[in-house]
Write a structure and sequence with these properties.
Blueprint: H1 11-25, E1 30-37, H2 41-49, E2 53-64, E3 68-78
């Protein structure tokens, strides 16, 4: 999560790429993000751009402050 005043500066992308590089260096075969709020389109788009894909959605698992119950995506990327 990136502070609102820091959004749009590539910080989120840098964090994700660093996490992926660390996981590869440690010998992980895959990485999964377990709870990506489906209405967080910026995050979903970023993760998809760097190779993650949605492998499932838990319906109505998150209480969004404005939208009510929304789903949580499970996002996955093979690292090898």
């Amino acid at each position: 999560m990136v502070a609102p005043e820091a959004q749009g500066q590539g910080i989120g992308r840098a964090l994700v790429l660093d996490a992926l590089a660390w996981a590869r260096a440690q010998g992980y075969a895959a990485m999964q993000f377990n709870a990506v709020v489906e209405t967080n389109h910026s995050a979903v788009h970023l993760y998809q751009q760097v190779g993650f894909r949605v492998i499932g959605t838990v319906p109505e698992a998150f209480e969004h402050p404005r939208l009510g119950r929304v789903g949580l995506h499970l996002m996955y990327q093979q690292l090898e």
